[in-house]
Write a structure and sequence with these properties.
The chain has 702 residues and is an alpha/beta fold. The protein has 23 helices and 17 strands. The protein is globular and about 90 Å long.
Length: 702
């Protein structure tokens, strides 16, 4: 009874129940257990079968695990745009590159509408609008306006991340502005597009400058890199959308945009609008077109990492009680008897209260676990200072670093392992605040540490990123986490010209620890995503703590001066990337053959369809969701639906009923009974606008 009241929204005073008893908290996954799962048989997917061998592909020689980013020359695209009439929406940058591109598109006979940054949504004329990038509702207003005038974009060119080359220190204000013009803008575009009635193919080409380190001479603006998280995630969640990043070089003199050199750049961008390939990250340098790739390097254990560490040195570890952070702390304590600063958000007890707490709490208590961890470090020779602070809060970090200096002295090195798993889910349901919360530890935390440690000049700054940025097809529903790691990957190139050794490590998964493990416990994927995830993550080997330290030793001891970013993959990386692409293709083909599974246990009883419209809707829902029987009051999202499946569902409903619908209807009316009313209302509205003969013909079509 109490549980039903709580489910109905009644506020319960939990402290008033069983107050005299001690309770243990057991976190449970957010996905339902009662679902029966049907696997794609390995016989149908021979490549997947090979991947499911737990030890398949894991190389025993750690020296073979290392890669660095590289670039390969690509052929220039064919210039065929003028042969096809397209509706093109151009988000115009402050320098005018987007405007020049739009003008050329108009000359080629394309239909073009431009969008500028403004204080609010304004229609300057029928071909130019302004909007405030901080207001997601204004993106909805824009797309509604485009719908009202019959302009359905085939291509969106987004050039708001083309900015002046003038270098200035990266501040929080500059960071926030860049997110509004880049990452958040792309997310808002995806959301607004997802609410539209059209589910036709849409290509989004994001143009930027100062984003990619191709020649080594570029000035990098890492705040722009988060947009890559959106570019990689949007197509996973919106199957009708194709995204690509195109980085270009803009002259230091803004007036040079009128030169012949930049006319050539316009030609290159025009060519990009015709391209559909697996290369989604492109860079133009001069006459050459470059695509991202990864080059194997060998890091032997010939140079001791201990040479990079100071005996009894002072080392800061953010996220120090996490699995990866604490493993590093153990290594430092055992190797150089380090003075270790463990920094985390959770509060911690003063040392004088430890013994009393241990005596009165059992082993499952999280504070007891932390106390024992600290004691274990001290037993092997380390000195430990635990500081509670939010790494993303500059004031808290400033106070924390003053505390470190007072207790130990200047910090010799930083291991930035802090991060949060991205449980916020699909883009369509996200708010800006949800994504910002995931970005904060890795993005704002990195900036705070970098600024406040500038005078201390630590020997190194090690940033912990993820291999998931490269195997991004596995990151459905995690746009914030992907964007945060893209920032870390770029930040190391920003720092290489300004400070001592800074390196970002894109880690493969560690055993039982790390954000991928956490996210997998809480993931709520559709059948398609489950197959991809389980083929590559659930049954492959991971990095053990001892192997993780061996990797770290090689990186710290590396003689390579240009080692800014290192990718760690226990399997052959190019082969893994290729296998993922092949498996996605095969699963897409095979998923249609999967048999339906029974209706899961829901809080509501099954109620059968009552009329023809509900019967048709139920049939479409059952085919899309692959459930044998769906009641008219069953909630689409309780049945495992998400925006990816929703787009497919809306597309089928448009074909079935010949009506214009958007995915927004599904969010507002997530059951068959509710959607039937929506369909009836749309049909009645269409009938009222028809003549009697037209109405009779339409009625006969249902």
């Amino acid at each position: 009874g109490l549980g039903q009241l709580w489910l109905s929204g009644v506020e319960v005073d939990w402290c008033g129940f069983y107050g005299h008893e001690r309770r243990h908290r057991l976190p449970l996954p957010t996905y339902p257990f009662e679902r029966q799962r049907y696997w794609i048989e390995p016989a149908n997917l021979k490549e997947t079968a090979r991947l499911k061998n737990k030890e398949a592909g894991k190389r025993s020689d750690i020296a073979q695990w290392f890669y660095i980013p590289s670039w390969r020359r690509l052929p220039l695209p064919a210039k065929q745009l003028e042969k096809t009439l397209s509706n093109i929406l151009v988000f115009i940058d402050e320098l005018g590159l987007g405007k020049k591109l739009a003008d050329r598109l108009v000359q080629l006979g394309q239909k073009v509408i431009c969008v500028k940054v403004g204080n609010s949504f304004t229609e300057l004329n029928e071909r130019v609008y302004t909007l405030n990038p901080q207001q997601p509702d204004e993106y909805n207003t824009l797309f509604n306006k485009l719908d009202s005038v019959g302009f359905f974009p085939d291509i969106i060119v987004h050039s708001w991340s083309v900015t002046s080359n003038n270098y200035s220190e990266l501040t929080l204000d500059k960071l926030d502005q860049s997110q509004d013009l880049g990452l958040h803008s792309l997310i808002f575009i995806a959301q607004a597009s997802g609410k539209r009635s059209s589910v036709d193919e849409l290509q989004i080409v994001v143009v930027s400058n100062n984003l990619q380190d191709v020649t080594g001479d570029e000035i990098i603006f890492p705040e722009k890199a988060t947009l890559l998280g959106a570019i990689k995630t949007i197509p996973l969640e919106y199957p009708n959308v194709y995204c690509r990043s195109v980085d270009v070089v803009i002259s230091d003199n803004d007036a040079d945009l009128l030169t012949e050199c930049n006319e050539q750049l316009i030609d290159q961008l025009l060519g990009e609008l015709t391209v559909r390939s697996s290369d989604i990250v492109i860079a133009y340098r001069g006459l050459s077109r470059w695509g991202k790739t990864f080059e194997k390097i060998q890091l032997d254990h010939s140079i001791e990492a201990k040479n990079s560490l100071k005996e009894e040195g002072i080392y800061l570890i953010t996220g120090g009680f996490g699995g990866m952070g604490f493993t590093v702390a153990q290594y430092l304590a055992e190797t150089v008897k380090a003075k270790i600063v463990l920094l985390g958000r959770s509060s911690f007890l003063p040392r004088e209260k430890w013994e009393d707490w241990l005596a009165n709490h059992d082993e499952t208590d999280p504070i007891c676990s932390k106390i024992r961890k600290v004691k274990s470090l001290e037993e092997v020779g380390g000195e430990v200072l635990v500081i509670s602070a939010d790494v993303a809060d500059s004031q808290q970090i400033e106070t924390a670093l003053m505390n470190v200096k007072e207790h130990f002295g200047d910090i010799n090195g930083v291991f930035h392992t802090a991060g949060v798993a991205d449980y916020e889910g699909i883009i369509q349901n996200r708010t800006k605040e949800m994504t910002e919360g995931v970005l904060a530890p890795k993005v704002k935390g990195t900036l705070a540490l970098d600024r406040l440690l500038k005078d201390a000049k630590p020997d190194f700054f090690i940033l912990f990123s993820s291999l998931g940025n490269i195997l991004y097809q596995l990151k459905f529903g995690q746009v914030g986490y992907s964007a945060a790691n893209e920032f870390l990957d770029s930040f190391t190139y920003y720092k290489k010209k300004h400070s001592a050794f800074t390196v970002t490590i894109n880690w493969d998964d560690w055993e039982e620890v790390g954000m991928t493990v956490e996210a997998s416990k809480n993931r709520k994927h559709n059948v398609y995503q489950e197959q991809i995830f389980d083929s590559f993550m659930s049954t492959t080997s991971s990095i053990s703590p001892s192997e993780g330290i061996a990797v770290l030793q090689r990186i710290l001891g590396s003689p390579l001066p240009s080692l800014n970013r290192v990718i760690v993959s226990i399997q052959d990386l190019p082969e893994t990337i290729e296998k993922i692409s092949e498996t996605i293709e095969k699963i897409s083909e095979t998923i249609e053959k999967i048999s339906k599974y029974p209706r899961p246990e829901l809080s509501n009883n099954y109620v059968a369809p009552r009329n023809e419209i509900e019967q048709k809707l139920a049939g479409v829902w059952q085919n899309i969701l692959r459930i044998e029987q769906i009641g008219i009051h069953d909630n689409f999202f309780d049945l495992g639906g998400d925006s990816l499946i929703g787009l497919q569902l809306i597309s089928k409903l448009k074909q079935e009923f010949q009506v214009e619908m958007s995915i927004n209807y599904l969010f507002q009316s997530p059951s068959i009974s509710q959607m039937a009313l929506v369909v009836e209302e749309i049909i009645i509205g269409e009938l009222e606008e028809l003549t009697e003969d037209e109405a009779q013909k339409l009625m006969h079509s249902y």
